[in-house]
Amino acid sequence: MQIKGIKILLIDDEPSILEFLELGLQSEGFDVQTAPDGLTGVNLAKQFQPHIAILDVMMHGMNGFEVCKMLKKMGNMAIIMLTAKDEVDDRVKGLTLGADDYMIKPFSFEELLARIHARIRNHFPHLLDEVLIGPFRINDRRKEIIYQNRILELSATEFVLLKFLVINHGLVLSKPHILDKVWGYDFGGEENIVEVYIRSLRDKLNDKEHRLIRTLRGAGYRVDIP
User: Fold this and answer.
1) What DSSP element (H or E) covers 81?
2) Torsion over CA of 212, 6, 54 and 181, rounded to 10 degrees?
3) Which of the listed CATH numbers 3.30.420.40, 3.90.180.10, 3.40.50.2300, 3.60.20.40 matches domain 7-127?
4) Do residues 201 and 149 lie in contact, with contact meaning Cβ atoms separated by under 8 Å?
């Protein structure tokens, strides 16, 4: 699953951090690769050619400052550095070497995501217009979804709902969760509205056998990308 090819490289020698960030960023639609140390990260970057690198400062072997310096020589790559130390000198050194942002551990995933989007807006604004996921092409600027090379005729709510389902494909999404994300927390209607809109989307997707948007009784819905 890719947001028009936006690739993120994670470099950290803490396996739990790598796993947490990898799963979170993949669920947001990014193409993610990970490296457990600086040298591996630099070598992987040459092949992967990420748009954004997120790297820890304090790593065994090659530290984050050395990695940052080497990555910046590879081209237009945004770098976000992570550190457990709230040291002004470290931040200044990282920014001097070319880092574009700095975050102190522990941090919230939501804040990291916001900083990633800020880097994309600044470095690669042209990549935000379109999301490519399997047979779906989602264009936010035009509020348009193309499925199997066919433009779907969708209402504004259907667009938001289908986009939410597709971007989170493979995940089971409950009706309350869908209501919160699509209709908003202050929605005062019935959960059955979700069923109505799902039925409409299935018709427009020609998903008569419910193989694309699956119903999991008692749990919710899941989109399966073929």
Assistant:
1) strand 78-83
2) -40
3) 3.40.50.2300
4) no
3-state secondary structure of 73: coil
> What six digits make up the tokens of 143?
């509020």
pTM exceeding the 0.85 threshold for the entire prediction:
no
CB atoms within 10 A of CB 134: 15
pLDDT tens sequence across 106-156:
888 988 988 888 888 778 866 666 777 889 998 888 899 999 999 999 999
Element (H, E) at 117: helix 109-123
36-69 core/surface letters (b: 16 or more CB in 10 A; e: else): bbbbbbbebbeebebbbbbbbbbbeebebbebbb
| Whole-number Å distance between alpha carbons of 214 and 210 | 5
Fold of the domain built from segment(s) 130-223? Arc Repressor Mutant, subunit A (1.10.10)
- Asked if 103 and 115 count as a contact pair (C-beta separation under 8 A), the reply is yes
Distance of CA 127 to CAs 27, 45, 49, 99, 140, Å?
A: 18, 19, 15, 21, 11
146 in Cβ contact with 112 (< 8 Å): no
